[in-house]
Every structure is written in structure tokens, then in C-alpha cells.
């Protein structure tokens, strides 16, 4: 359920996205709100500026949370973002331990506004293969 406080944080994420556009960056913005409602960090998309396909604000903030927050605090922290996280960012969010994500635009809505956003090709994957060889470093790291 989206609360009035959630809407206020979403408006801030949208304002971060709008500011990104004025800086020549893509229109995506995010922030982290801690358990007490304080804004912990903010970021916007800098993919073009940094020439880095991973420079999404959600990924930047997930990495920040994983480095800077203890697991209990991360689990009670919310990521507010102007657009639903992509698969790359969603994976990082899960791994960071963040407890909640609230987004303004869904991926479907973004694609309606900008059809090119949904034009990613699929990548063929083959495997698994070489189980006995591939398990050696895993077993060495995690132990029997």
C-alpha cells in the first residue's frame, strides 16, 4: 500500500530524475529512506556521462546500502525510484538486503512512453556444463 509519505518520497525521486535531464543525463532518479524516514542517499542515472551501462541510480544505491548499512537497517530501508527497477538493478537490490522498493512508473508505462525502452534483445545461454571442473573452486571456497 502506498502511503502519503511514500508519495512524498516518490515525488522527490521524480524531481531527481527531472534534475538529471537538466544535467544531460537520462531521466531516472532514486533515493533511500532509512527506518526513521531520513533520506540516506540519492542518485540519478549517469549511464551516458560515465559511459557505464551499470550506472543506474537503483544499482548505485543498492551498492551503497550493501557497503554502508548493517543487515537489520538495510532490511528496514526503502528504495524510492522514479521507474520500476530493471532486471540488473532488481538483482542488486535483492543482494543488498534492502527491504522494500516503491516506484512511480512501471516498466510497462515506461515502454508506453518510450517504446525503445522495451527493445532489448534476448541473449542465448547454454549450460550447465563441466560440473566436476566448475565445482572445484566453489568447493574450495565454501568447504565441504
TrEMBL record:
Pfam families assigned to the protein according to its UniProt record, in alphabetical order: dCMP_cyt_deam_1
PROSITE patterns on file: CYT_DCMP_DEAMINASES_2
SUPFAM superfamilies: Cytidine deaminase-like (SSF53927)
CMP/dCMP-type deaminase domain: residues covered: 4-121
Gene3D superfamilies: Cytidine Deaminase, domain 2 (3.40.140.10)
Name of the protein described by the UniProt record: Nucleoside deaminase
Originating species: Streptomyces flavotricini
Lineage: Bacteria, Bacillati, Actinomycetota, Actinomycetes, Kitasatosporales
